[in-house]
Design goal:
Order of helices and strands of chain A: HHHHHHHHHH
Number of strands of chain B: 13
Largest sheet of chain B: 6 strands, mixed
Number of helices of chain A: 10
Shape of chain B: globular
Oligomer: heterodimer
Mean pLDDT of chain B: 91
Radius of gyration of chain B: 22 Å
Low-confidence stretches of chain A: none
Strand order of the largest sheet of chain B: 6-7-8-3-9-10
Structural class of chain B: alpha/beta
Helix content of chain A: over 70%
Number of strands of chain A: 0
Largest interface: A-B, 21 and 27 residues
Low-confidence stretches of chain B: none
Helix content of chain B: 25-40%
Radius of gyration of chain A: 18 Å
């Protein structure tokens, strides 16, 4: 399973590269990086950086997973992939993990111009990974109810807005306890902590476990829906 | 190799069965053709045999094992050539095949260069598939179906979109695969393809099999037991096959001039299909 997953991730990187999705991600990272580099002397940018870094893996996870599957569907490949001796979960996880690695590299590339290497990189990457994977699951679920990319994008907007509510608490605009239950809350806390240490070691572990639990729960729900509604409808 | 007994299927939201009591068997090394108009149930039958549709009634046995008992390893055993091209258009032909090959056990895989050469695609192996014509993409479909040396092959319109030369090459490869002992299930609208390739054919209409037999037997059974004799002078006459050697009229006629042709009056498969099903077969 792990070997097959690694092999499939290699192919996913090639497909993403050939469809220019990696180039787009790199270009956006460079643009963000240059902006941050120009702003780095304006004071503490860690909160703004957290907001923007949150957006990047969120969009990579959410939109790119949808774009990749819709392109495959349009090319008829989805149907051909169903008659192969590989488990559906291997293919899906390979796509999610490869997008998450791109998301982590891009987020890292955005953080370095401001923070150099003076931040908690492992915790940062864990937070970014959590956001990528959680948004990939949301993307897969939304995709199950979308026939084309434009419809998919429009349906994604409410989910992005709902998940972004957490920033109302983060910036001190509100203090609504309910927002802490949003799936991305723990991943956001990990990213924030990587720039401005505020969590104890047990809290870091707790938030990592909560992120993982959210991913597993959302993956369970979205993969089932996706298999039935999106793949099941692919002829 | 493939045994289907009393196969019936109704889609979850459907009210009418799409397949009704299908019964057929395909032996190892046999080419079996499935012919029928659009919506007859050919694709549904195939999807059940590919294990993409579940919830059917009846028994489907593949390689001595119930279809339900096969796991993902089933796809090591079968190869599927789809009716429409389905490739990653931005990847090259080689990359497409290597990607799909990565799902199979290496020991069974054919050499990719040899596969491309076998269907005349060697010059396009490193070109993006988006630059391929439909016929080239179909040839790529074909070699992708056979690259892992499966025991059972399903081809849906295997020569669709191909020029006569390439269609001939594909047919020759299919016949060669039969010689190697592969079991081959072909779905096609093309009566000539079915006639040239299939050991037996079945006509499916409205989810039911109307007849299953060899093309030769069907053409004979539905034709006239007569021969038509044509002379160089373009004069022609029809004679019964029964006692032809003793038929004085026939002997007299062929003495009248040089015989240019003698044809039996077997029905064409198209005529048989219309007779049996009452419907014309349109692509």
């Amino acid at each position: 399973m792990m070997k097959q997953l690694a092999v499939q991730m290699k192919w996913q990187f090639l497909i993403l590269h050939k469809n220019n999705l990696i180039n787009v991600s790199i270009a956006l990272t460079v643009v963000y990086g240059l902006i941050f580099w120009g702003l780095k002397d304006l004071g503490d940018l860690s909160k703004i950086l957290t907001l923007l870094i949150f957006n990047d893996p969120a969009l990579i996870g959410l939109l790119f997973v949808g774009l990749a599957y819709i392109m495959e569907k349009n090319q008829g490949v989805t149907y051909a992939l169903r008659v192969l001796p590989v488990h559906f979960h291997t293919q899906l996880l390979a796509r999610m993990f490869s997008l998450s690695i791109i998301g982590m590299l891009c987020a890292f590339g955005m953080a370095v111009p401001v923070m150099l290497l003076n931040f908690n990189i492992p915790v940062f990457l864990m937070g970014v990974l959590g956001i990528c994977l959680i948004f990939s699951c949301i993307g897969i679920w939304v995709l199950s109810y979308s026939s084309e990319f434009l419809v998919f994008m429009l349906k994604c907007i409410p989910f992005l807005l709902i998940c972004s509510l957490i920033f109302l608490n983060y910036f001190g605009v509100t203090d609504i306890w309910l927002f802490n239950l949003l799936p991305v809350n723990s991943s956001l806390k990990l990213i924030s902590h990587s720039f401005t240490p505020e969590l104890s070691s047990p809290e870091i572990i707790l938030h990592s476990v909560i992120s993982l639990a959210w991913f597993i729960a959302l993956y369970f729900i979205s993969s089932r829906t996706f298999k039935t509604r999106f793949l099941g409808a692919t002829h | 190799m493939i045994a289907v007994k009393n196969l019936s299927f109704t889609y979850p939201k459907g009210t009418q069965p799409v397949l009704q009591n299908l019964n057929f068997e395909i032996s190892k090394g046999e080419i079996f053709g499935f012919l029928g108009p659009s919506g007859a149930g050919k694709s549904t039958t195939q999807q059940i045999l590919y294990k993409l549709l579940t919830g059917y009634e009846g028994d489907v046995n593949i390689g001595g094992k119930s279809l339900d008992d096969w796991g993902k390893d089933y796809y090591e055993t079968i190869g599927v050539g789809f009716e429409l091209p389905n490739h990653y258009l931005k990847l090259t032909g080689r990359e497409n095949l290597e990607l799909f090959a990565s799902f199979y056990a290496k020991a069974r895989l054919a050499d990719i260069n040899t596969l491309f050469e076998s269907v005349g695609l060697e010059d396009s192996i490193d070109k993006p598939v988006s630059d391929y014509s439909k016929g080239m993409k179909m040839r790529l479909n074909f070699i992708r179906a056979i690259m892992h040396n499966p025991d059972i092959l399903f081809f849906d319109e295997p020569t669709s979109g191909m020029d006569p030369v390439n269609a001939h090459i594909i047919k020759e490869i299919i016949l060669d695969l039969k010689k190697q002992g592969k079991t081959i299930f072909i779905t096609t609208h093309s009566m000539s393809t079915a006639d040239q390739l299939c050991d037996r054919i079945a006509f499916i209409v409205d989810g039911s099999l109307r007849v299953t037999d060899t093309p030769k037997a069907l053409k004979h059974a539905h034709g006239q037991n007569q021969v038509i004799v044509e002379l160089e002078s373009l004069e022609r006459q029809t004679f019964s096959l029964e006692g032809l050697g003793q038929n004085s009229g026939f002997i007299e006629f062929i003495k009248q001039g040089e015989v240019s042709r003698i044809n039996s009056m077997d029905a064409t498969l198209e005529e048989v299909f219309i007779k049996v099903t009452g419907k014309a077969l349109k692509s």
